[in-house]
Each structure stands twice: as C-alpha cells, then as structure tokens.
Amino acid sequence: MEKFPEFELENQDGEKVGNKDFEGKTVIYFYPKDNTPGCTTQACDLRDNLGHLNELGVKVYGVNGDSKRKHKNFIEKNDLNFDLLVDEDFGLAESLGVYRMKKVFGKESKGIVRTTFLVDEASNILKRWDNVKAKDHIDELKTYLEEEA
C-alpha cells in the first residue's frame, strides 16, 4: 500500500500539523487557491458536511501554497471548521505529484491540480482522487466513506 509522505506543515494559526495528527481516517485535499470560486465551493461543501464526516471518523485538512494570513482570511470569510495547511514551497504537493503543469483558461502554468487523499493513522493512502471537480466531489467522498464504514 502506498504511503503518504512524512510531513509537517503549519496551519493558519502557525501550529505544526503532520502525520502524527492522523487518527482514524484523514482527508487531505489539495486545492489551487484560497478565495477562488471553485476552491470556495469545495471548502464550503466540506464545511457543511464536516459533522457527517466526523461521525464516520474522518478528519479534514486543506492544503495549498497560500500563506497563513490568506488561509486565516479564507477560513473567517467562509466560516470554515477545519484547518488549512501552508505548503508555500509546494514540497508536499510536489512529492505527491499534484503540483505540476496544467492548463487554466488556455494558459499553461505550474500549480496544484485539485486532488484528494484518504489516509489512515499509519499514513497508508486508502484512496486517491485525481483531477477532482470541486462541485460534485463531496458526494463522491461521502458515498465512498459510507460504503467503507
């Protein structure tokens, strides 16, 4: 089984979060940028379903290259109820192959490709969703978790 890489990143409050914080199952989702339409939709869907995910024994973390200040603003603006992790040098995203060349509005640039990982407390990757569509992903995630529960 593929392992999630060892990591330690700061959350929006400067607290260190890493593999040591994996309990039960953890959803770690990589998204391009705070305060953009698709990323806001995805974050708010997770926020609105966090109670249900927690009942299924699942914790949630979002990750991208934005600063603690931007994460804090995004959390406050959208009343998010989970931590966002700072990967400013894209080290973790790169090690998982989710920071790469992509086309946005016909323009090629390097960035985070929306990807979600489900990991267990031993850092085993139980499931990986690539090229996630922000709008419908929560339903896909819940269906998978409910079937596994």
UniProtKB/TrEMBL annotation:
Reaction(s) this enzyme catalyzes, per UniProt: a hydroperoxide + [thioredoxin]-dithiol = an alcohol + [thioredoxin]-disulfide + H2O
GO cellular component terms, A-Z: cytoplasm
Keyword vocabulary terms for this entry: Antioxidant, Disulfide bond, Oxidoreductase, Peroxidase, Redox-active center
UniProt-listed GO biological process terms: cell redox homeostasis; cellular response to oxidative stress
Superkingdom as given in the UniProt entry: Bacteria
Molecular function GO labels: thioredoxin peroxidase activity
Domain Thioredoxin: 1-149
Positions annotated as active site in the UniProt record: 39 (cysteine sulfenic acid (-soh) intermediate)
E.C. designation(s): 1.11.1.24
Pfam families for the chain: AhpC-TSA (PF00578)
Family recorded in the similarity comment: Belongs to the peroxiredoxin family. BCP/PrxQ subfamily.
UniProt function note: Thiol-specific peroxidase that catalyzes the reduction of hydrogen peroxide and organic hydroperoxides to water and alcohols, respectively. Plays a role in cell protection against oxidative stress by detoxifying peroxides and as sensor of hydrogen peroxide-mediated signaling events.
Record note on quaternary structure: Monomer.
Name of the protein described by the UniProt record: thioredoxin-dependent peroxiredoxin
